[in-house]
Amino acid sequence: MARTVDDAVTEVRKAVTDPSARRDSDAEIRRYLVDGLNIIKSQRPDLFLGAYGTTYETLAQGAALPTAISGQFFLSLVMYGVARVEFKDEESADRARGELALKLAGGLL
User: How many alpha carbons fall within 13 Å on the CB side of residue 42?
Assistant: First the structure.
Protein backbone atom coordinates (compact mmCIF):
# COMPACT_ATOMS: atom_id res chain seq x y z
CA MET A 1 0.00 0.00 0.00
CA ALA A 2 1.40 3.37 -1.01
CA ARG A 3 1.62 5.87 1.81
CA THR A 4 0.92 9.54 1.28
CA VAL A 5 2.15 12.74 2.84
CA ASP A 6 -1.31 13.18 4.36
CA ASP A 7 -1.03 9.75 6.03
CA ALA A 8 2.22 10.85 7.68
CA VAL A 9 0.81 14.21 8.79
CA THR A 10 -2.24 12.46 10.27
CA GLU A 11 -0.06 10.00 12.19
CA VAL A 12 2.11 12.82 13.57
CA ARG A 13 -1.03 14.65 14.72
CA LYS A 14 -2.38 11.51 16.41
CA ALA A 15 0.89 10.95 18.26
CA VAL A 16 1.03 14.51 19.61
CA THR A 17 -2.73 14.66 20.27
CA ASP A 18 -3.33 17.61 17.95
CA PRO A 19 -6.16 16.61 15.61
CA SER A 20 -7.35 20.21 15.22
CA ALA A 21 -3.92 21.54 14.13
CA ARG A 22 -3.49 24.01 16.98
CA ARG A 23 0.22 23.31 17.58
CA ASP A 24 1.56 23.12 14.03
CA SER A 25 0.16 23.71 10.58
CA ASP A 26 0.15 20.95 7.98
CA ALA A 27 2.75 22.94 6.02
CA GLU A 28 5.06 23.00 9.03
CA ILE A 29 4.74 19.26 9.61
CA ARG A 30 5.39 18.66 5.90
CA ARG A 31 8.65 20.64 6.28
CA TYR A 32 9.65 18.35 9.16
CA LEU A 33 8.86 15.34 6.99
CA VAL A 34 11.07 16.72 4.21
CA ASP A 35 13.94 16.92 6.70
CA GLY A 36 13.16 13.39 7.85
CA LEU A 37 13.18 12.05 4.28
CA ASN A 38 16.55 13.63 3.61
CA ILE A 39 17.95 12.14 6.84
CA ILE A 40 16.63 8.69 5.94
CA LYS A 41 18.17 9.05 2.49
CA SER A 42 21.55 9.98 3.97
CA GLN A 43 21.47 7.03 6.40
CA ARG A 44 19.99 4.45 4.04
CA PRO A 45 20.90 5.42 0.45
CA ASP A 46 20.14 1.84 -0.63
CA LEU A 47 16.44 2.59 -0.21
CA PHE A 48 16.64 5.27 -2.89
CA LEU A 49 18.47 3.43 -5.68
CA GLY A 50 17.63 5.10 -8.95
CA ALA A 51 16.54 8.26 -7.20
CA TYR A 52 19.53 9.01 -5.00
CA GLY A 53 20.23 12.27 -6.81
CA THR A 54 16.82 13.52 -5.77
CA THR A 55 16.86 16.04 -2.95
CA TYR A 56 13.53 16.54 -1.28
CA GLU A 57 12.75 20.24 -0.96
CA THR A 58 8.99 20.13 -0.46
CA LEU A 59 6.19 17.62 -0.10
CA ALA A 60 2.84 18.43 -1.63
CA GLN A 61 -0.31 17.73 0.30
CA GLY A 62 -1.74 14.40 -0.83
CA ALA A 63 1.41 13.38 -2.71
CA ALA A 64 2.66 9.82 -2.50
CA LEU A 65 5.74 9.23 -0.38
CA PRO A 66 8.70 7.52 -2.07
CA THR A 67 8.09 3.78 -2.41
CA ALA A 68 10.96 3.06 -0.02
CA ILE A 69 9.02 4.72 2.81
CA SER A 70 6.79 1.89 3.96
CA GLY A 71 6.65 -0.27 7.03
CA GLN A 72 9.36 0.58 9.53
CA PHE A 73 10.63 3.50 7.47
CA PHE A 74 7.19 5.14 7.49
CA LEU A 75 7.14 4.84 11.28
CA SER A 76 10.64 6.30 11.45
CA LEU A 77 9.55 9.29 9.35
CA VAL A 78 6.48 9.82 11.55
CA MET A 79 8.52 9.57 14.77
CA TYR A 80 10.94 12.17 13.40
CA GLY A 81 7.97 14.47 12.76
CA VAL A 82 6.68 13.83 16.29
CA ALA A 83 10.10 14.66 17.73
CA ARG A 84 10.26 17.95 15.85
CA VAL A 85 6.79 18.97 17.04
CA GLU A 86 7.58 18.02 20.65
CA PHE A 87 10.95 19.81 20.67
CA LYS A 88 9.20 23.13 20.06
CA ASP A 89 7.53 22.99 23.46
CA GLU A 90 9.43 24.08 26.53
CA GLU A 91 7.71 21.78 29.01
CA SER A 92 10.12 19.10 30.17
CA ALA A 93 7.57 16.30 29.72
CA ASP A 94 7.02 17.17 26.06
CA ARG A 95 10.74 17.61 25.49
CA ALA A 96 11.40 14.16 26.95
CA ARG A 97 8.73 12.71 24.62
CA GLY A 98 10.46 14.42 21.70
CA GLU A 99 13.82 12.94 22.65
CA LEU A 100 12.28 9.49 22.95
CA ALA A 101 10.58 9.84 19.54
CA LEU A 102 13.89 10.92 17.98
CA LYS A 103 15.69 7.88 19.45
CA LEU A 104 12.95 5.60 18.16
CA ALA A 105 13.12 7.17 14.70
CA GLY A 106 16.88 6.65 14.50
CA GLY A 107 16.69 3.14 15.88
CA LEU A 108 14.32 2.09 13.12
CA LEU A 109 16.82 2.97 10.42
Answer: 9
